[in-house]
Amino acid sequence: MDKLVPEKILREQIVGVSGVTWWNWKRAGRLDGLPVITIGTNGRRFYRQEDIDRWLSALSTGNAA
Fold first, then answer.
1. Please, what is the average pLDDT of the chain?
2. Is the pTM above the cut of 0.70?
3. So where are the chain's domains?
């Protein structure tokens, strides 16, 4: 089973950006290459570690979707 990373952990501890910056990135399409898994009626968002690694690699090379 893949390890799921909560959105808050991803943005604050892994990427190191604020919630406002994350929202702006989402609105600008910068997160389009990062598949999200939504769980529950409250819409909590999680990401698979391999998807995070792929997305971060694409960001660092300038090939983000």
1. 90
2. yes
3. 4-61
